[in-house]
Every structure is written in C-alpha cells, then in structure tokens.
Design brief:
Layout (H helix, E strand, L loop, with lengths): L1 E5 L3 H12 L3 E5 L2 H10 L1 E5 L2 E5 L2 E3 L6 E6 L6 H5 L6 E6 L6 H8 L4 E2 L2 E4 L3 E5 L2 E4 L5 E4 L5 H8 L4 E4 L3 H22 L3 H6 L1 H20 L6 H10 L7 H8 L5 H15 L4 H18 L1
Parallel strand pairs: 1-2, 1-6, 2-5, 3-11, 6-7, 7-8, 12-13
Antiparallel strand pairs: 3-4, 9-12, 10-11
Length: 293
C-alpha cells in the first residue's frame, strides 16, 4: 500500500518518517524546491537525543493513485496545496486544525472517501524544509468511526496510536473546543500555556472561552464538558505553546481564523453567543497586524 503526505512539515513529516520506518511506501507532495530537497537529501526527524533520516519519494504533484492521503498543510495553504493532487486517493485523512476544511477538501477530492481526523499529544516543528524536530514522545491520531480498520492498522505502523472515536463533528470539536481559546491566547500574549493557566485573569478568560466553545459544540450535537477540557489543558506541559503563536511570532500566515474564527462563526451560525471567544479573536488579530507593520 502507498501513503501520500500532502505537506511534509511538522506533523506530516513525523508521520512520513514513522511510516517509512514501519516499511510503508511513502510519497511526499511539496512545493518544487522542497520536493527536490527531500528527494536528494531525505526527510530527517530529530526526537530527543536521536535522529533518523529516510528517503521517501517526493514530487510537486501527485500523479499516481494512492491508497491513503494525509493532508497536513496548514489552513492558509490548503487551497493551493489541493491543486497539487492530480490523481485519486482511496481514503483522505485531513489533519488540519478547525472544522471548515472538510467541506473544502470534499469539494475538491470528490472521488475519495474523506475521513475526519485530528492529531494530539504532539509538539513538533519544522526547523527548516526537510528537517523536523519532535519534542513530545507520543503521537495520537483520532479518526471518525467510519475509518476502516485497515486504515487504522496502516497508520499504526508509523508508531502513532490510532483511536476510532465517534462522528466527524465529535472528532473535530473535541480538539477545537479547547484549541480555539488556547490558540488565540498564546498568539496574543506569546506566553506558554503554563503561564496562562497560572495567571488568575488569563485563567478566567480562558475558562469563559472554553465554556462558550463547549456550548457551540453542544448545539452541533457534540457533548463536551468544560471540566474535561480543562483536565487536558492542565495536563499540558507548562512550556507548551501553539503553532499559531509560533507562526504569529515569525510573521508567517497563521491559522487563527481557521481555529478561533471557525468557532466564532459556528456560534453565529447556530445562535450561540461567544463574546469571550470573539474578544480573544479580535485582540489576537490586532496583535498580528501590529507585528506585521
């Protein structure tokens, strides 16, 4: 079986290296210069004190059918990245943040079965094209229940833990409910989660926002409790930040709109007030604009 990774950055790179370690044929789809680099120098993963390099196939466009396609680009790059997929994939698993990308992908990859997925318990970043640093030991992928067992078995060969859990909405909102407040707060303050949850004022603001996102999820038919979301937030390593915060700090396009913006838009669509989330979003967007001047 062949697995393609559209966007071999942090998450996509970790999965590609793990799959090749497990004996799976992998093709990486990337921009031409990145594809050339990976084809010639390989894809390297630094994890703890160790480092490994694999040599997957790499191409600017997917021209041959594959069994499984991971979409691991960030939201601002999604539209352009999907243009690189010229051949069908039997199953597509997007691992983007937010909820609105599913419709975009289904409208473009109409021949594929698109299964909602989310990735958690991982902190990784792209040091430079072709080189990924993974700071956490575990990768957990949660997939909507319609994923076939053979898909889960294939992904397990990467070393990731796969959980088949519930509906598409449940898989996506289980992460977004806490991610929408945390992404905006870390992007705005450039402070790690340990500092924010230990600051009484910021903890109050985050609690209000988590309450709101859980209320929006409930209107979507997803039962989440703020208490359970806070158990996860309180268990996060204190130095943990978010990819949104890192992108904002570096002046790169961020997923702020795809994450916090998506939760706010869902609240408006469903008639659920989200004043705390909206305030976080506006302040974070203002901070982004100020940094870009």
């Amino acid at each position: 079986m062949t697995v393609a990774v559209l966007g071999p950055g942090a998450v996509g790179g970790v999965l590609a290296v793990g799959l090749m370690r497990g004996g799976v044929q992998v093709v990486c789809i990337a921009r031409p210069d990145t594809a050339d680099l990976i084809a010639s120098q390989g894809l390297s993963l630094r994890h703890g004190q160790g480092s490994e390099t694999v040599l997957p196939d790499a191409t600017p466009e997917l021209l041959e059918p594959v069994d499984l396609l991971f979409v691991t680009v960030k939201a601002p790059a999604l539209e352009d990245a999907l243009k690189r997929v010229k051949a069908p994939a039997a199953t597509v698993i997007p691992l983007l943040n937010g909820i609105e990308h599913m419709q975009t992908i289904r409208s473009r990859l109409v021949e594929s079965v698109v299964v909602a997925g989310s990735v958690s318990l991982i902190e990784a970043y792209l040091e430079r094209p072709g080189v990924i640093v993974q700071k956490t030991p575990t990768v957990v992928l949660t997939l909507a229940g319609e994923a076939k067992g053979v898909t889960a078995d294939l992904i397990n060969r990467s070393g990731a833990e796969v959980r088949l859990d519930g509906s598409e909405a449940e898989v996506l909102w289980a992460k977004l409910a806490r991610q929408a407040p945390v992404a905006a707060a870390t992007a705005l303050t450039q402070r790690p989660i340990g500092e924010l949850r230990g600051d009484p004022e910021w903890r109050r603001r985050l609690q209000e926002a988590v309450d709101e996102s859980c209320a929006v999820a409930a209107r979507e038919g997803v039962s989440l409790t703020p208490e359970a979301q806070w158990e996860i937030i309180d268990a996060m390593p204190p130095g943990l930040t978010s990819s949104t915060a890192r992108d904002v700090a570096a002046g790169r396009p961020s997923e702020l709109d795809a994450i916090t913006g998506a939760a706010v838009r869902a609240g408006r669509r469903l008639g659920v007030p989200t004043p705390a989330l909206e305030r976080l979003l506006v302040e974070a967007e203002d901070a982004c604009r100020a940094r870009s001047r």
